[in-house]
Design a protein that fits this description.
This protein is mainly alpha-helical and 136 residues long. It has one domain. The chain is built from four helices and no strands. The model has no long low-confidence stretch (mean pLDDT 88). Keywords: Membrane, Transmembrane, Transmembrane helix.
Amino acid sequence: MNPDMLPDDFGGVLSQGELTLVIIGAMLLRAVPLLVLASSLVKLKRFPALRALHFTLLASVLLIGVLALIEVALPALVPSANIWSSLWIFAVAWLCVTWTRSAIKTGLRPRVLDIATLAALAGTALALFLPLATST
């Protein structure tokens, strides 16, 4: 991100604890696609009858990875128009819906990966919601 675009008081309205929660939420948010990727690879082997669903899940994770790589590697080429935000919203929604279908159909197996994903999502929601709820 271009440092000229950041306001001088970035994070100034948040207390130290709130800013820490936002940073924790951002880190957990980046862990979710990695957990889903690991889960989808395990599920491809463990559930051959649901192979198409898990290939779709893998494709949705890869789409998010490609969008993230484009933002990091080529920030000057990232459009600031609404189409870029729409692509991100579509990718995240597709990942959430596909992961939920996979979790329901497999009964949250493998348990460790799916429950870790749920915990990361809950932690992200909590870490990002608390600063909004406490700031006035």
